[in-house]
Amino acid sequence: MRAGAPYVGSEVGRLRQVIVHRPGVELLRLTPQTMDDLLFDDLIWVRRAQEEHDEFCAALVGAGAEVLQLADLLRETLAVAQARAFVLDHTFDERVHGPAATPVLRATAEALGDADLTELLIGGMTKRELLERTDEPRSVVLHALGPDDLVVAPLPNHLFTRDASCWVYGGVAVNSMRMPARIRESVAYEAIYRWHPRFAGAPFQRWSDGLEDGQATVEGGDVFVLGGGAVLVGMSERTTPQGVERLAKRLFAAGAADRVVALGMPKARVFMHLDTVMTMVDERSFIKYGALGMLPSYTITPGGPAAAEGDVELSIADHPPERMHATIADALGLDGLRILTAEQDVHSAAREQWDDGCNALAVAPGVVVTYDRTTTSNTYLRDSGFEVLEVPGAELGRGRGGPRCMSCPTVRDDH
């Protein structure tokens, strides 16, 4: 780890610094009518979710990590004029709001202080709230909306800070998000990493900017920093093969990694990211959902002469499903993995996976944060020699994301 620089050298080395997002008004925008479009399966009791999140943060601090709140980072970033202009440019677009309403919306937002603008960007804005600040412009788009319809969509999935950006060794990927409801999340991270004083002067590389990547989508819940130059990526419902190849190419060109293992996952919401079905819990161990089975895998390495300066060709080897664990072990330089799957009936296992029983966040080798509701997985981990730090997840768990999902490590030791 380089002193003073963001760096994530593994999945399980000691966690030093992490970005999280405390639930806020954006979750109050969820209704039975909006939750599907916003990628939620249920409504969340926000006050209780905030209390649970506070306990999650306390567990991280107790484990020695500095906890950075996304909303604070964004508010502090918006104090930089160039950052504020960038965020407004990428939030108010006539392709979304129409050419008549866009200038009015932007001017209204631009007049807000940094804290109020942060709340608008994350929490959204209804037509009624807009008209409390300005006269209604002659806009077909706005005229067609009811008073409580959303003019600016909220970003409730900011709760899951793992996905829109992820740190891989000495650099960061600001990710191109697969689902329309999450695309704007990347804008905040791009601004923070460019202009926030904590990051603006720090030495790190950029693996992607996440704003114009088309079909080449990658989400952080699919990206595992295995350590020693190896990276594991799930090709899930949210991360595409194009995105994996582009990430590998940039990592190789910079000399940041020399192996990327890609797993071909089922394309289903229940398996939306790799970390919903398996996570790394120590240097050679993964907790894994039994029904995931074995997946086809691909080992990507640098190969052939560079096509141009700073470029690199890819060498790709494909492996049958029965080689999945061996392929990951090879990338780690190990003779095998320890796969941890608790014995339980198929229905109990499916419920526990849905409740994020496999979404453990390692804060040090062999020390993991989990939800208290995943009792079978927690007991199994303890019986397997792990220290398990339980946090409440009755409300947070309704969002279908666990402790790993809710954390974006920015500084983590090699293991």
From TrEMBL:
Pathway: Amino-acid degradation; L-arginine degradation via ADI pathway; carbamoyl phosphate from L-arginine: step 1/2. The active site is at C405 (amidino-cysteine intermediate). The keyword Plastid does not apply. One of its GO terms (molecular function) is arginine deiminase activity. Pfam families: ADI. Belongs to the arginine deiminase family. This is Arginine deiminase. The lineage of its organism: Bacteria, Bacillati, Actinomycetota, Actinomycetes, Micrococcales.
